[in-house]
Structures are given as structure tokens and as C-alpha cells.
Amino acid sequence: MWEIISSSLPQLIVAGIKFTIPLSLISFALGLVLALITALVRIAQRGRAFAVIKGIFNFYVWLFRSTPLLVQLFIVYFGLPYLVIPGVLDHGIKLTPFIAGIITFSLNTGAYASETIRAAITSVPQGQWEAASSIGMTRGQTLRRIILPQALYISVPPLANSFISLVKDTSLAASITIVEMFEVSQQIAAENYQPLIMYTLVALIYAVFCSILAIGQHYLEKKSNRHLSQPQGGE
After folding, report:
1. Mean pLDDT of 31-45
2. CB within 10 Å: which end of the chain, N or C, has fewer?
3. Contact 109, 169 (CB under 8 A)
4. Does 180 have pLDDT greater than 80?
5. Where does the pLDDT of residue 230 fall: very low under 50, low under 70, confident under 90, or very high at 90 and above?
6. In Å, what is the CA distance from 50 to each residue of 45, 46, 57, 69, 96?
7. 5-19, 37-51, 107-121, 207-221: which range is least confident on average?
């Protein structure tokens, strides 16, 4: 057993460094950008013409929050090549496994994180909007200078949880042939016929990764709580 572990562990760690970690980081970064845009559009107070754009973003959030991530991966990687539009997409949309994974995980993260950011923005007291308006600040200036900085600190804990969940969800990327840690463990298990050892080993590696992230989350939460409590302390 120890020989299997010692020979397999380096391969799993390399797969984590080459695919699992980059897939998580890139997807989360792109997802956060998309989440911020989505949240701002959904809370925007514009005319009726803007309602169509808001409806599109609402539909996007509903769609990705209402369907399984595994199904989304299959649609993007296996389904899009069959999206043939004569004269526009004659051969469908063919993506590499890694790019398909990035797109799917980013869209999924963006949908969930947008709700977190939207809730954080709306949790800032309405009086702060009114106070900023009373001194001549526009809605955009108020959002950038007063509301978003507070919302950022409020959203740190749930967003950190989302990132930890994303790291674990990347194991689903094995279903579209991305050679991340779980896929490598499957390949090794097919060779040595020790699935229990291999799957337990990869589970422990995920547990170590997520535990390290949880420590970082705890540190960020302490900093954000200290920041949020400063104004009251100053008063």
C-alpha cells in the first residue's frame, strides 16, 4: 500500500499544480468579474429600455443556479460542437477541454457569486446613499467610493466559501477529460486495481488544499471584521 501511495502521490500533486489550481484560480477570477457586472446590472435603476438587459442577466443567473454543474460541463464541451448555424457556425463551437472547463466554471461561479455581491451591496444601509446624495455625489460615485468597498468586506466570507467549493467542484472536470487530480487518480486506479486507496488518497489531497484555503479564509474574515468595526470604533 505504501509503495502505491509513494508512487502515486507525486503524480497527483503535479496534476493539482498543472490543472486543478490554475483551473480554480482562473475560473474564480473571471467569475468574480462577471459576478460584479451581473450584480451591478441587476441593482441598476434605469429606464424601461434597460429592463431587457436586466432580464438577460436575470435569466443567466436563474439558468446556471437551476441546472447541475456536470450538465453544464457536458453542454459546453460535448454539446456546442453540434451548434451548427449555416454561414455563421458551419462546424459548431469546438473547445479544448481546459477552455471548456474555464468557461463553464466561470459562468457557474459568476451566477452564484453575483447573488452574494448583490446581497452585500443591498445590505449597506440606504442612509449612506442618501447622505452621499445630499453632499452632491452621483449614484456612480457613491457606489464606487462608499458602497462597493463596504460590500467587498461583507462578501469576503461567502466568496471564500465559493472558492473552496469551486476547488472541490473541479473534480468534475475529469468528465470532460481534463487531466486534473481526480482524473489522474482514476487512471492510476485502472492500472493498479486499487480504487479505494487511490480515491482516498485524492480525497485527502483535496482536504489538505481546502484546509489551507480555510485558514486563509479565517485570516481574511478577521481582517474584514476589523475593518467593518473601525467606523463604529472611531465614532
Report:
1. 92
2. C
3. no
4. yes
5. low
6. 9, 6, 11, 29, 35
7. 37-51
The C-alpha R_g of the chain, in whole angstroms, comes to 22
Cell of 35: 459576478
Distances 174 to 19, 74, 229, 230 between C-alpha atoms, Å? 11, 11, 44, 45
Here the CATH number for the domain that contains residue 80 is: 1.10.3720.10
d(C-alpha 64, C-alpha 5), whole Å: 38
How far apart CA 7 and CA 197 sit, in angstroms, is 12
Give the number of C-alpha atoms closer than 13 A to the C-alpha of residue 101, restricted to the C-beta side. 25
CB 36 within 8 A of CB 152: no
Residue 224 in grid coordinates: 474584514
Q: Which 8-state DSSP code applies to residue 92?
A: -
Q: Which three cell numbers stand for residue 152?
A: 467587498
Neighbour-count burial for 181-217, b at 16+ CB within 10 Å, e otherwise:
bbbbbbebbeeeebeebbeebbeebbeebbeebeeeb
Q: Which are the contacts of 194, defined by CB distance < 8 A and separation ≥ 6?
A: 1, 4
Of 156, 155, 149, 150, nearest to 119 (Cα)? 155
Closest CA to 178 of 86, 231, 118, 105: 105
In which domain, by residue range, is 22 found? Answer: 2-234
CA-nearest of 4, 15, 13 to 180 is 15
Number of domains in the chain: 1
